[in-house]
Prior knowledge:
alpha+beta, 5-stranded antiparallel β-sheet
Amino acid sequence: xxxxxAAWVDFKAIKSQVSIVQILERYGILQSLAKSxxxxxxxxxxxxxxxxxxxxxxxxxxKNCWNCFGKCQSGGNVIDFVAKKEGVEFRDAALLIQKWFPxxxxxxxxxxxxxxxxxxxxxxxxxxxxxxxxxxxxxxxxEADQPHSNPTLxxxxxxxxxxxxxxxxxxxxxxxxxxxxxxxxxxxxxRGYIAIPIHNMExxxxxxxxxxxxxxxxxxxxxxxxxxxxxxxELFNQHRATTCDSDAPLVVVEGYFDAxxxxxxxxxxxxxxxxxxxxxxxxxxxxxxxxxxxRVMLFLDNDEAGRKGQADALTRLSKRLYAHTVHLGSREVQxxxxxxxxxxxxxxxxxxRFP
Length: 355
Ligand SMILES: [Zn+2]
């Protein structure tokens, strides 16, 4: 590679800040692995020697390493994996990783990447007090300017059950379920969950979130997201919010179902943070989505976390947009639980747009 001569590679930073999960995800291998130990340990067929024995290739997310106990007997860290997979030298593999994950190397905490995000949405926080460029000698200036993103999925779940009773219990209509591609997943990593497709701004599928239908049992998370997926880079429903006509201000809610219910009530300019805090990347996306009329309305849950997240988001967005909040008085409610009539009372629906 042309840049190899001049580039400074910080192997230590790559090894500590890019997770094996991200690497496996990028290769489209992650989904084929079986998980155990609360998602920390994974096993499958060895992608290095192309084996078929489904136990030979083992991965530890927390130790950020992998091993083949079959034919090739290889193993090591993320750089070793890419070197073997690409058939290149260790240094060139490090350069490749640096190119693939320019921002991950600069800002992502390893435990965020490796964590199994199974609980209620918590947006991974990013240190805001650091001038990122100075801290990150691994990043070449030209690469640091590149947008960073979640890779698009190389598959789609096409056997989802859209008739699962949970979706109706949640008050969703057949049209809404179809529009959002929701359905119960009978197998794979999301087995037992309602799958919720997440798209990037361009409308490409980047992940499925899982919502357990009902109250989950011991050790089962209410929500499930794929390892390595960085939800702080996305806004749920952003691709629909950007294509619908923008007479109405952009409304920002917390959860998937809040956004879905607003959409069903006829308010399409809505995105969800997938949590109660606004990431820096989400802030940028909101500013971009609001460039036409500059209006944003924050409509987070009226509970402690929501109020805190809303106050912070309001402070930050007010500096760049006409930002308002939706007032629900003292009721501890979330947008999902309001009737269409109640939503019309608090949101500026475009004329004639509600059913
Ligand atoms: Zn092997």
